[in-house]
Amino acid sequence: MQTVLRFYAELKDFLSAERRSGTVTRTFDVPGNVKDVIEGCGVPHTEVDLILVNGESVDFSYRVADGDRISVYPVFEAFDLSSVVRVRPQPLRDVRFVLDVHLGRLAGYLRLLGFDTVCSNVWSDHELVGISTGQGRILLTRDVGLLKHGSITHGYFVRATNPRRQLTEVVRRFHLAGSLNPFTRCMECNGWLEPAEKAAIADRLPPATRRNFDEYRTCSTCERIYWRGSHYRRLNEIVEDARRAGE
Description:
Radius of gyration: 22 Å
Structural class: alpha/beta
Low-confidence stretches: none
Oligomer: single chain
């Protein structure tokens, strides 16, 4: 038995070099579901938004048959697909993230924009999957295999390797520009930032900082102190770049 799959747009990025045209022919003895066939080509199910088999929309449970022609599409941003079956679940009401160990700098930038983002260099793949599914967090990763875990419903493979470009990519992919709440979370631990009286933290401030600044915030979790020092202009540029990227 044989089926032909056609992958569109950025889904081709997951295919091997000899399949980069987007067309893949698969042979099989026992019919399987279309989700397994797609992931067998290297494409994680979290990247797929629409599947057409012989011109008809199907979900991941469809059993592939001999002669099927399967078209696989990525997330659509400019088209209304409400009239056809979409294989991904509805977007999470509250956008929250969990990131793998390779995306630590991106985690800090997402917190800078105000998004609830957790990341640790000691979490195993099993723990990342558990956090994503148990806490309703979108899993961001550079590990394609991790996104193929059957229980992951909301995940995304980050293409860029530069953290600033990664931030722009994520803001665009999840349409975050209108939801920014910058400088409200600790970039180190994800805790909320709260106004702090200068007198209450004066003994923790460097002398030059104490002389030159009067407004401060502290993290409600790790007690890290924040103020608008020389670094603020650079951080604000990151915020504005992210805002423009999503417009």
